[in-house]
Amino acid sequence: MEFKEMKKIWDTQNDEALYVINEDALHRRIKAKKMGTKRKTSFSEVILIVSNLCAGGVVIISHLLKNSGNVAALSMGAMMMIVGAYILFMRSQRIKRDQQTDVSILGDLENAIENINYRIKLSQSMIWFCLIVIAFTMYTVLNSDKSLLNIILISGFFIIGFFMSRWEHKRFNLGKKKQLLDLKEKLINEFEM
Amino acid sequence: MTENEINHIFQTWLKQHKALLFKIVRSYAFNEEDRDDLFQEIAIQVWRSVTSFKQQSAVTTWLYRVALNTAIKWTTKERKHQDRHESIDVSQHIIESHQPPDDRLAWLYEEIAQLNEVDRSLTLLLLDGFSYKEMSKILGISESNVGVKINRIKKHLTTKSEKS
User: Fold this and answer.
1) Where is the RNA polymerase sigma factor 70 region 4 type domain (chain B) (predicted)?
2) CB contacts < 8 A (A, B)
3) ipTM score
């Protein structure tokens, strides 16, 4: 078969009436995808809110009860409480935005994209916040009468935690960027003949 | 560009160029579930691309660029299906083809499927009548490289058709 003939066969598909998009099914699939993203976002928010409010509360209460007068520790506790409350506020804004979404295919699409962007921002902010908390904690620990073993254990815990959160961010949020770079490399290799 | 304008353009593109999108979907996904999944990914990327379209190229060229990029990326994913934790109703498929079965077309799709992702893109563009210049712009490679590749693909397909 000549290539011209193949093209003729190929062109028979151009009749638009031969294809139908089932809009209802497309809408359902996008909605299912959106719900998956929503669940993940909601889970991350709840973990961050609870951990910040609880940890901040424990730090403040324990230092106030001991009457330690440790300004660094109290500031860190207060900062964690503020961050927890701020994420709670952002969560309520997001839920409000979700409820106002247009119930069309495009409305759902836009909402799913907004949620993914929101999660990336949240994850990036938390990595920087984590560094501040580590700095405050280490300052407090180093100025206390804790043993060297305790200091090493606390440092190790923070280092592992920090790298785990970076790994999570890279693995799930920056994975798409890696895919693009891989694709570019693949294209370059393919055409280096 | 207002949201209504974006929505209108997206709906128009989808309506006018669905055959183009389906050809790409059929060349990169080989069962109904995967086809639905890929079509959904392409629809999302096309919608997102509306604001970036600067009318410096034809809509078909733009759509090919977006859809092929999405399809190639999609095939490189380890897992082809949707997140298995999400309950997706697959009883109703997104794309429905009312196409009468054509053995020669089925053969052509089988041959295209055996090519690597990049050669597949070039073959689709070639069959849809794109020039070497347009192909080089869409794929970001030189025209001479396109020419060499195209000659190889044409020769390969013609030889295969003679054998079958």
Assistant:
1) 107-157
2) 134
3) 0.80
